[in-house]
Amino acid sequence: MKIFNHKLNIELIVGTVAILTSVISIFIYLEQLKMSREQQKASVYPYLWFEGGVYDNNVFHYEVDNKGVGPAFIKNVEVYYHQKKYDSFSKLFTSEWVRINGSNFNKFPYYFDDLETGSVMKIGEEKELYVLKNNQILAQHLGYQVMNDSSFHFKVLYEDVYGGRFLNYDNKITIIEKK
Predict the structure, then answer these.
(1) Radius of gyration over alpha carbons of the chain, in Å?
(2) CA-to-CA distance for 61 and 34, rounded, in angstroms?
(3) Percentage helix, strand, coil, to 5, in the chain?
């Protein structure tokens, strides 16, 4: 009794190898497509960086820069100081101004802009969040005492153009969700 009585069919072998090669090529193409999409998403990551301090002994300056390669869509801003929560940097700095100097805002030149929920920071954009001039006591209080106090913290949640979420917590950036 013969179990295998087949002649070797070269056309069948060539056809099978061609089909296997095609299937492997499709898997390779799909993997390359996946890598290309990940690279494309990474090419638009925003990167928000906050910095500030005292200059010329009487100027306090605090700013945020988008040093990434994509716009940042701001979703939430929280600033904490002495266990009190503020929804913006300017509200914290202004409350400290009032506490130290009273409410006379015409006394010293100042400027503030703010990073608010719903705002967008373009690629390379620098935003001055707070600038105070010609007040050495308050500038040093904000620049040295507030900024270096262990109770001063901030959290900024933002998204990239694909909806990926990032959290900047005291200038430590964490990817919350990739899309």
Answers:
(1) 28
(2) 43
(3) 35, 35, 35
The first and second tokens of residue 98, run together, are 């009032």
Q: What is the pLDDT of residue 111?
A: 76
> Which residues are CB-contacts of 85 (< 8 A; sequence separation ≥ 6)?
78, 79
- Counting beta carbons within 10 angstroms of the beta carbon of residue 158, is it exposed (0 to 12), middle (13 to 18) or buried (19 or more)? buried
How many other CB atoms sit within 10 Å of the CB of residue 140?
15
Comparing C-alpha atoms, which of 89, 140, 130 is closest to residue 110? 130
Half-sphere exposure of 136 (CA within 13 A, CB side): 2
Parallel/antiparallel/unpaired status of strands 72-81 and 120-121: antiparallel
Q: How far apart are CA 154 and CA 81, in angstroms?
A: 9
Residue with tokens 């945020």: 64
Token readout for 81 is 């100081």
Q: Tell me which residues of the chain have a pLDDT lower than 70.
A: 1-8, 41-42, 104-108, 179
The helix/strand/coil state of 22 is helix
CA-based nearest residue to 107, from 144, 135, 73:
135
Closest CA to 170 of 145, 152, 143: 152
Kind and range of the H or E run holding 85: strand 84-86
